[in-house]
Design brief:
Length: 235
Amino acid sequence: MNGNMINVNGQILALWPRGLPRDAAHTLEAFQQIDDERVSSATGVLRRFWSTVDEVHANKELSEVGKKARIAEAAGSALSNLKKPAEIVTRLEANLRTRAATAVVLPKPDVNDTMVDLALAALVKSQDKVPTLLVNSSERVRVAIARMPEELTGLKPADRARIRGSLIDPNLAQELGQTTAAVEAARYAVQNAIDAVAPSVDMAPSDKAAIVGPGWRIQGVSATAAALQAASGER
C-alpha cells in the first residue's frame, strides 16, 4: 500500500488516515484487512476478482453467456473470501465498543443529573455540531453525551466513543481514537469490496447477505432486514 489511498481499477477502495500507525498493536489487525499486499485482505480479494474479470473479457473463445457465467463464479468465490475480513471487522467493532464502554467509569447520575443530561443531549442534537469539536467541549457536556444513548444526541456510535474516550487518560483516549479510525477505515474498504463484487454474484440478495454475515450492506436487502439479521447475529 503506497500512501494513504488504495485505488483498484480506478475506484478508491480504501483510505487510511494520514499519520495513523499501521503496525501498532491496536491498529495492525484493522490495517491487515486493507493492506493490498495481503491476498486475504479486502483489497487483495478485489484485485484478484478484477484480474479474473479482465482475463475473462480477453478470452475470445468464450461467448457472452460463458463470460457472464465465469464472472459470476469468480464473484461468488470473491464474496466468500470477503467473509473473513468482514467477520474480523465486525469483531474489532464489538471489541472497540466494549473497551470504550469500560475505559471510563462515569459518575452515577441522580435525578437532577439526568435532567441536565437530557437537556444537554437535546442541545447537542439541535446544534448539529461537528463531532470533533465536541471532544473539546466542557467535561459536563461530554459526560452527558457519554451517559445518553446515541438516539438522543444524534451522534454516531464511533463519534460517541471518541467523546467518551476524551474523559479518560489522554494516552488511552488517543489509543481508542486511533483504533476507531483504523476500524472505520477497514469497514469502508470491506464494504466497498462487497459493493464491487456482490452485483455479479448469481444468487438471491438474502443469500449474499448470509455469506458476508450481519451488519453489511447488500443491494436488494432492506436496511430493516439487515438490522434484524445483525440483531440476530449478536444473540
